[in-house]
Amino acid sequence: xxxxxxxxxxxxxxxxxxxxxxxxxxxxxxxxxxxxxxxxxxxxxxxxxxxxxxxxxxxxxxxxxxxxxxxxxxxxxxxxxxxxxxxxxxxxxxxxxxxxxxxxxxxxxxxxxxxxxxxxxxxxxxxxxxxxxxxxxxxxxxxxxxxxxxxxxxxxxxxxxxxxxxxxxxxxxxxxxxxxxxxxxxxxxxxxxxxxxxxxxxxxxxxxxxxxxxxxxxxxxxxxxxxxxxxxxxxxxxxxxxxxxxxxxxxxxxxxxxxxxxxx
Length: 264
Ligand SMILES: Nc1ncnc2c1ncn2[C@@H]1O[C@H](COP(=O)(O)OP(=O)(O)OP(=O)(O)O)[C@@H](O)[C@H]1O
Ligand SMILES: [Mg+2]
Fold this sequence. Notes:
Layout: E1 5-10, H1 18-31, E2 36-40, H2 48-51, H3 62-67, H4 72-75, E3 77-78, E4 85-88, H5 100-113, E5 118-122, H6 129-137, E6 140-145, H7 149-164, E7 169-177, H8 179-183, H9 190-197, E8 200-206, H10 209-216, H11 228-240, H12 256-263
Parallel strand pairs: 1-5, 1-6, 2-4, 2-5, 6-7, 7-8
Antiparallel strand pairs: 3-4
Adenosine-5'-triphosphate is lined by residues 14-20, 42, 124-125, 175-176, 205, 207-208, 211-212, 215, 229.
């Protein structure tokens, strides 16, 4: 058994950026030298293969490994972006046939057989079967929220559900951050979001229209020049691996300390 860390990316609300975080964080960890697998556990409507630009490579999915005995080395897609990066698709359709124990054992086995450092599990925007499967395997959860009130409430609820399922190591990622909206009182302050969700902040990702455009073409944020979203993912990957990094390190066109005063 190696020391593979299993991280689920979650929120019981749809459309907050879970898949965006799963893809770009996984890619960044691999770029930093960590052997990383990203598993799409959104069994309802898989999309991570599209976000990763790997839709034409998918032959097997995670249910083939767990239910049909396909070897991880055969089932995983080696991503050409990095020799450290692997991807496993969700099935095209799913009938709730997986049990949490079987899923957890299989994910651990994949981690050990592939000598992985990190497994990132993307989940759908609800708390159905895939959420339970991911929670059975994960040792850490990243809860993603935007500044929308419903999304903040969902993050709080997700934190409670994670406690109930035994995932006690939980962190908050605030996505689609826009400092101007906070300053003009359109959105809650940073402290209000942290307070309401009762979660420990691990990163803030700015809203970046170009990110959406790149993603539609299967490209990651690191292909964007001087992107603050890319800096945000670099910082989150470092914090995941135990490094201490100030909140807005690497962000361009902003004064870090002034920004923190503005958004508190
Ligand atoms: N920081 C950002 N800046 C700009 N657009 C973003 C950002 N994060 C996510 N998006 C866009 O928001 C949309 C939803 O993102 P994503 O698919 O990652 O959310 P999700 O939580 O996985 O959704 P679902 O619950 O449907 O799986 C996508 O079009 C994505 O490109
Ligand atoms: Mg998604």
